[in-house]
Design brief:
Number of helices: 8
Helix content: 40-55%
Strand order of the largest sheet: 5-7-8-10-9
Number of strands: 10
Largest sheet: 5 strands, mixed
CATH architecture of the largest domain: 2-Layer Sandwich
Structural class: alpha+beta
Number of domains: 3
CATH class of the largest domain: Alpha Beta
Distance between the termini: 23 Å
């Protein structure tokens, strides 16, 4: 109750209305999520006489929200499955060529047809093998970590690093869409406090949507990060596709709304993206011109006490 008591104390001091969500212990020993509206009660002469907190149990709602987020995440993983093969095949091709060269030389040496010694070129080949194996290990580890349900942890994130990581999952989607990727990542961005895989999901969904919006002729997907004032960092994902029709704009963030062909989308992507952004205290907007493309802009606070929809904050300062 200490968290709620602290909020009530702040409301008593400021007189402002406060909406908050806190974690409360339950009889079973598990945590209960409760959303509270806290307000000051005034007596005669308008002077504060009490602080009133009205709460509602939202535990089941938060569980359902997290299930929806994870379902959409798995749908996104399905869309980028081809990219996994592409990302793994590149280093495997290099590994195979280097192994064949080293094996051939070793075979020749055992037959006495070449000197039995290691040359600089052999060392370089072995380094390439090592680098390729590490690249595959890192990629598969990251992809499994992204797709697998895990405890949500809040940490200090470099937005540019997360963007680069997410875009690596989308490489094959860009190739299939004939998309040219234009990165414009602002240097020295301050860190944000966020859930890594959820921010990755935001980037991945927006980049995938942008590529798929280009049409058969392809085009440009531009991913930009920026620092908006002292307290906000931003991400903008633009495409040069067909744009969003006027009659669709009011529904673009609605659950299960999609303009993609049947079987090509769940209609949850942008709804989940919006919920993630809001849970992090951020905002998402879009601009679109029919025939000229669309830009989605996400802004996140540099320092923000995250909405308690998200559990399990790391102790990292």
């Amino acid at each position: 109750m200490s968290e709620l008591a602290q909020i009530m104390k702040q409301v008593a001091a400021s007189g402002d209305l406060s909406n908050c969500e806190v974690r409360l212990p339950s009889v079973s020993g598990t945590a209960t999520r409760a959303a509270f509206n806290v307000a000051i009660v005034r007596g005669e002469g308008g002077r504060p006489s009490a602080v009133l907190a009205v709460g509602q149990d939202v535990t089941a709602l938060r569980v359902l929200q997290n299930q929806v987020i994870h379902a959409e995440k798995l749908a996104t993983v399905g869309q980028i499955a081809a990219g996994v093969a592409h990302e793994i095949n590149n280093p495997l091709t290099s590994i195979q060529a280097c192994v064949e060269a080293v094996l051939h030389k070793a075979s020749m040496a055992t037959q006495g047809r070449v000197p039995n010694q290691i040359e600089p070129v052999d060392v370089e080949r072995l380094k390439r093998i090592q680098d390729g194996v590490e690249r595959i290990r890192r990629f598969t580890h990251d992809l499994v970590g992204y797709a697998r349900p895990s405890r949500v942890e809040i940490e200090r994130l470099d937005l540019n690093e997360v963007v680069e990581h997410a875009l690596s999952f989308c490489e094959h989607i860009f190739v299939d869409a004939k998309a040219t990727l234009d990165r414009d990542l602002a240097p020295n961005l301050p860190p944000v406090r966020a859930v890594r895989d959820q921010v990755m999901q935001v980037v991945t969904n927006l980049a995938t949507n942008a590529a798929q919006a280009l049409g058969e002729k392809g085009g440009v997907v531009r991913v930009r990060t920026f620092h908006d004032g002292e307290a906000t960092v931003g991400l903008a994902v633009s495409d040069t596709g067909t744009g969003i029709r006027e009659e669709h704009r009011a529904s673009i963030f609605d659950p299960f709304f999609t303009t993609k062909p049947a079987g090509s989308g769940t209609g949850l992507g942008l709804s989940v993206v919006r919920n993630i952004v809001y849970a992090h205290g951020g905002q998402i907007t879009f601009q679109s011109k029919l025939g000229s493309g669309t830009t989605f802009v996400v802004t996140l606070p540099v320092s923000h006490p995250l909405s308690h929809n998200i559990e399990g904050e790391k102790s990292t300062p």
